[in-house]
Amino acid sequence: MNKRVHFPIETDPSSGLIAYPDEIQRFANADLATMPGHLIVDYAGALDLPVYVPPTQASLPLLVITKVISDQPDKTLVNLDRHEITCPQGATLTLTAELRGDDGQVLPYADSFRLPIRQRGGRDGLLIGRAVNGKVTVVAPFTAPGDDGAWQCDAAGINAGLPDDARLRFACLTVNVYRG
């Protein structure tokens, strides 16, 4: 029965050549396959080596809104289960969120990032999320004339143009702003 062994491989930064691990010498007659950063060996034999397990891709952090405060609370409806807020034009919302890992724990992230929002009529806006120890605060003023309507923020907008290691997951948020 053939067995599969996985070896991480690296490129030597000074020479640009691939640096293979010493153990590869045991497999001179084996079938070899490569993928970026990895060498996979299929062999028949009795060597006691770890069986190959394909590397898992780290999942993206999840942005979860945990609280919404409005400066007009008696006129604002918040339904976080449906990812929806309804507020009057002129309201300022303060959103609190967390960046969580797969285990649900808050990640120790500290930085600022953009949250593009788009009105269904085609207008664009930009909010800024500020994270300290994985706790994110976003201030969203809907105070300008013409801010009424449905605004949406989603993961595609947040992740647009970002490298893979800076992306995150986000369910979506709709803010319905009514003239009031």
Describe the overall structure.
The chain has about 180 residues and is mostly beta strands. It folds into two domains: about 45 residues, no CATH class; about 120 residues, Immunoglobulin-like (Sandwich), CATH 2.60.40. It contains one helix and 15 strands. A ten-stranded mixed beta sheet has the order 7-8-15-13-10-11-12-9-6-14. The protein has a three-stranded antiparallel beta sheet with strand order 1-5-4, with no helix packed on it. A hairpin with a 2-residue loop joins β11 and β12. The mean pLDDT is about 80.
Question: In a nutshell, what does this entry contain?
Answer:
This protein has 180 residues and is an all-beta fold.
Secondary-structure map with pairings?
Elements: E1 2-8, E2 10-11, E3 18-19, E4 31-35, E5 38-44, E6 62-70, E7 77-79, E8 84-88, E9 91-100, E10 111-119, E11 124-132, E12 135-142, E13 149-153, H1 155-159, E14 169-170, E15 173-178
Mean pLDDT: 82
Low-confidence stretches: none
Which strand order do you get reading across the main beta sheet? 7-8-15-13-10-11-12-9-6-14
Number of domains: 2
Could you list some keywords that capture this structure?
10-stranded mixed beta sheet; 1 helix; 180 residues; mainly beta; Immunoglobulin-like; 3-stranded antiparallel beta sheet
